[in-house]
Design a protein that fits this description.
By secondary structure, the chain is of the alpha/beta class. It has a single domain, classed as Arginase, Chain A. It has ten helices and eight strands. The protein has an eight-stranded parallel beta sheet, sandwiched between helices. Helix 5 links the parallel strand 4 and strand 5. It starts with a strand and ends in a 13-residue tail after the last helix. This is Arginase. Its cofactor is Mn(2+). Pfam families: Arginase (PF00491). Pathway: Nitrogen metabolism; urea cycle; L-ornithine and urea from L-arginine: step 1/1.
Length: 311
């Protein structure tokens, strides 16, 4: 197994979510042993600590329903700059959220770096939700439901970066997996843009290996880089309760590990988000430990290497 230079970046963002608590997420991953787990697998780990949002002044969203847009813009700008810088180096960034709004910055920054290397960026969005609302379509105003639309170049996000999004991710290079809650405006946009969507029924019928292998083959054929964005609610809330947007019927422990093991075997993943962990809602840290275990599988931990643990 190839040794990786892993860089941890904390993004204690909760302004995009509908309830407080995600601000504690990055430190919960640290407490749950993320660095120790990765180092035990032979990787080098450097922790850059927690970022702080950029100052954006009095930037406003066109839709008055939108909440905390200035904070969203501040976090997007600092994360975009950090991801663009890390994406140009021979390192593997792991972005510790924070709610899923962090992906507006992490994915757009990784896309910029990929473009500068003349390689396309692909995105695997592991989530119960598609997060493909625009600022005009969101009814809740919670901005963690908008980052994928932004990075795919959908209109209406003027002011978020303070400049035009120069390197959007091609919508057809995005695969949303595990989804089981899509609003009507998102559904129309996803179909119109040709985003890949594998809901839980498709996973039940076809199985993860067939679906994920097809996507990974496309990434490999295009010589692409792959960003994985893992939301806690990709998992069933019975095994991962520490999330403010629980949706029944998520992936099982083994299904989630299979995804990570296949991603490791592919050798295609170049960056990772771990998002929506709300430790305030956890049960004795079991969700944080599970997310750390999944990261371990992505970086080469095999089933028979996994320690016995009672959750």
């Amino acid at each position: 197994m190839e040794r990786q230079e892993i860089v941890l970046v904390g993004a204690p963002v909760e302004e995009g979510a509908g309830r407080k608590g995600c601000v504690m997420g990055p430190d919960a991953y640290r407490t749950a042993g993320l660095a120790v787990t990765l180092e035990a697998l032979g990787h080098a780990v450097k922790d850059l600590g927690n970022l702080k949002p950029a100052q954006t002044g009095n930037v406003r969203a066109p839709n008055g329903t939108v909440k905390n847009f200035a904070a969203y813009a501040g976090w997007t700008r600092v994360l975009h700059a950090q991801a663009a810088a890390l994406g140009s180096k021979n390192v593997f960034p792991i972005y510790l959220g924070g709610d899923h709004s962090i992906a507006a910055g992490t994915v757009s920054g990784q896309a910029k770096a990929a473009a500068e290397r003349n390689r396309p960026l692909f995105v695997l969005w592991l989530d119960a939700h598609s997060d493909f609302h625009t600022l005009d379509s969101t009814a809740s105003g919670n901005l963690h439901g908008t980052p994928l639309a932004f990075v795919a170049g959908m209109p209406g996000f003027d002011g978020l970066l303070g400049q035009a999004l120069a390197h959007p991710v091609t919508p057809q290079n995005i695969e949303v997996m595990g989804v089981r809650s899509i609003d009507d405006p998102e559904r129309a946009l996803l179909l119109d843009q040709g985003v890949g969507v594998s809901d839980m029924r498709r996973i039940d019928e076809e199985g993860i290996p067939a679906i994920l292998s097809a996507f990974l083959n496309r990434v490999k054929a295009a010589n692409g880089l792959l960003h994985v964005s893992l939301d806690v609610d990709f998992l069933d809330p019975e095994i991962a309760p520490a999330v403010g947007t629980t949706v029944p019927g998520g992936t099982t422990f083994r299904e989630a590990h299979l995804v990570m093991e296949m991603l490791h075997d592919s050798g295609l993943v170049s960056s990772l988000d771990l998002v929506e962990l709300n430790p305030f809602l956890d049960e004795r840290g079991k969700t944080a430990r599970l997310m750390v275990d999944l990261a371990g599988s992505l970086f080469g931990r095999r089933v028979f290497d996994r320690p016995t643990r009672s959750f």
